[in-house]
Amino acid sequence: MQISSVEAIPLEHSLPDGHGLGDARNFGHARQTTLLRLETDTGLVGWGEAFAPGRIVAATVEELLVDDVVGMDPFAVESLATDSYTSQYHFGGDVFLQSAVSGIDIACWDIVGKAVDRPIYRLLGGTDCESLDAYASTMYYTEAERPPAAPIRDAVDAGFDAVKIKIGAGTDGDVERVRTAREILGDGGRLMVDMNGNYRPHQAIETARAIAEYGVDWIEEPVPPENASGYRDVTDAIDVPVAAGEAHYGRFAFKDLVDERAVDIVQPNLGRCGGLSEARLIAGMATTENVAVRPHVWNSAVGVAAAVQFAASVPDYPHSRNVPEPMLVEFDRSENPLREDLLETPIDPTGGEVDVPQGPGLGVSIDEDALDRYRLDE
Ligand SMILES: [Mg+2]
């Protein structure tokens, strides 16, 4: 079996003026991503996601990857990640190269799963897994003034008992947001906060201490992703676990996070980190050093499906059934039809759980009519 064609499909959904949302660093209106559609000479089709703008992904595939991918046996999928460091002239750590590789890698795993009639998480060595806990990402900063409590109340009403909220725009405001979230969530719920790299270490530490009384499961990206020494300063100073990884690309960036004890939790995004093959390496490094793995997901439905398959494959090591520390899959609650509309059967987090698709490959079917509505190139 050989790959016979590679297509990059750019997708976009724009929020209207006044409806921008985001984090402590900026607001956005456009949700952009790119699906990769691979076909084989046997007629199998695989889907993947490169979590990057379409024209960049298309150019990267065309310039750097297509000659090697067309004609490749999809069972050789893990060679893609290695080749991204060796075949491309020192481009391996680049976000756009790793995003494009991610999309092709996920599509290859989808094909392999379909070829052997197994879901990807079983191919990656996972044991039987019917469902995973999901947490809601919500309480974004908004372009127009909106009551911050309403979105988290909606998430709790939908059955989530684990929630991540945006903070990072000043300690006083952070405390207010965390206090509001904890009130709505109740004492038993798991609450995570995301600073999106908007702080210097001393600011992140100040907020971490000020919100400690409300009980926080992790602090995400307290300082910019490039600020390695800042991560160490924060981690050394506070007791709350620190998480990062959505802005780290490829195995070497994650190796640094793990080796330097910069974080307690790594968060590879399946559409950017290098794909399922690279994520498996990252999970192996992390869990071996007793660092947790919780995938970052702000993707289309294809990236969500890839994250669910990956999450279902990650071992709990070293945790036991007596002291469980369950995997958590991120589920963004902001408006995004690229997440809601692209699958014939959407992945539904209602009740705070997602079913792990048990069909072959990613276990999902693309709604091609919906795809046509959001593609930029037609
Ligand atoms: Mg984040």
UniProtKB/TrEMBL annotation:
Taxonomic superkingdom: Archaea
Organism expressing this protein natively: Halorubrum lipolyticum DSM 21995
Molecular functions per Gene Ontology: hydro-lyase activity; magnesium ion binding
CDD domains to which the protein is assigned, alphabetical: MR_like
Entry keyword Magnesium: yes
GO BP annotations, alphabetical order: amino acid catabolic process; carbohydrate catabolic process
Region feature (Disordered): 340-368
PANTHER family xref list: ENOLASE SUPERFAMILY, MANDELATE RACEMASE, MITOCHONDRIAL ENOLASE SUPERFAMILY MEMBER 1
Membrane-crossing segments per the record: none
Keywords: Magnesium, Metal-binding
Gene3D superfamilies assigned to the protein according to its UniProt record, in alphabetical order: Enolase-like C-terminal domain, Enolase-like, N-terminal domain
Needed co-factor(s): Mg(2+)
InterPro entries according to UniProt: Enolase-like_C_sf (IPR036849), Enolase-like_N (IPR029017), Enolase_C-like (IPR029065), Mandel_Rmase/mucon_lact_enz_CS (IPR018110), Mandelate_racemase_C (IPR013342), Mandelate_racemase_N_dom (IPR013341), RHMD-like (IPR046945)
PROSITE patterns to which the protein is assigned, alphabetical: MR_MLE_2
Protein name listed in UniProt: Mandelate racemase/muconate lactonizing protein
